[in-house]
Amino acid sequence: MEPIKVTAKCPIRTTLELLGGKWKLLIIFQLKDGTKRLSELKKGIPDISEKMLIQELKKLMDSDLVTRKNYGEVPPKVEYSLTVAGMAVLPLIEQLKRFGEVYIASRQIPSL
Amino acid sequence: MEPIKVTAKCPIRTTLELLGGKWKLLIIFQLKDGTKRLSELKKGIPDISEKMLIQELKKLMDSDLVTRKNYGEVPPKVEYSLTVAGMAVLPLIEQLKRFGEVYIASRQIPSL
DNA sequence: TACAGTACACACCTTTTTGTAAGTATGGAA
DNA sequence: TTCCATACTTACAAAAAGGTGTGTACTGTA
């Protein structure tokens, strides 16, 4: 169990560190409806590489935003889901999403 | 006037492209109370380099989130401020900030 | 004359992030 | 025996992001 390190001093930066990068928010978004296996996550994010997916899942677990359950079976079965802290990210993603939608829409009427 | 390019297909990714990186949100946050000069922005974000600041301001201008006003004086005077679209980012930042605060607070009571 | 102040540009370098391709372990099915 | 599925790991390479240092333009001021 690693000590969680949060180097930044201001809360905006903290969040940026926790959630920054190309994939973390997309992974959390995939888990919004509950538990998923690695292979399911891959399907949900078609252009992520397996390495990236696992790597980012690990970071999210280190930050205590995602949990992992290993069934210890063969072939392996592992399930990922959001922690309470992870669920707290969902409304944030919703806002990001809405912002993107509005932004895109406004671009399509450049006459404004 | 460059055509604004938004390569991503989903609104979350669009937003991530617009606002991702280490500095953009911090710059927008600095502009929340109105117009600022470059030197003032630097003061507000002590550890950003001049190059990064200008570079990121340019990207924000390309995305139409920030505007620039050049007074054409010598020594140069230039002012930056948020566009309407840029102001729409502020509530988003507020949420990020609150998330960070809650996250940090929860870490300080690890007994939970 | 030398220097200060302001908003940049440019060259170069380091670090971080992301991607690619291969390999590992295991038991059951063919 | 060979192959499959699954969740990884590892080594390596490419690309993106970020940082440092220097230079430019111009005018006023000491």
Automatic annotation (TrEMBL), chains A, B:
The keyword Zinc-finger does not apply. InterPro entries: HTH_HxlR, WH-like_DNA-bd_sf, WH_DNA-bd_sf. GO terms for molecular function: DNA binding. Residues 10-108 form the HTH hxlR-type domain. It comes from the Bacteria. Pfam families: HxlR (PF01638). Transmembrane segments: none annotated. Keywords: DNA-binding, Transcription, Transcription regulation. The keyword DNA-binding applies. This is HxlR family transcriptional regulator. It comes from Cecembia rubra.
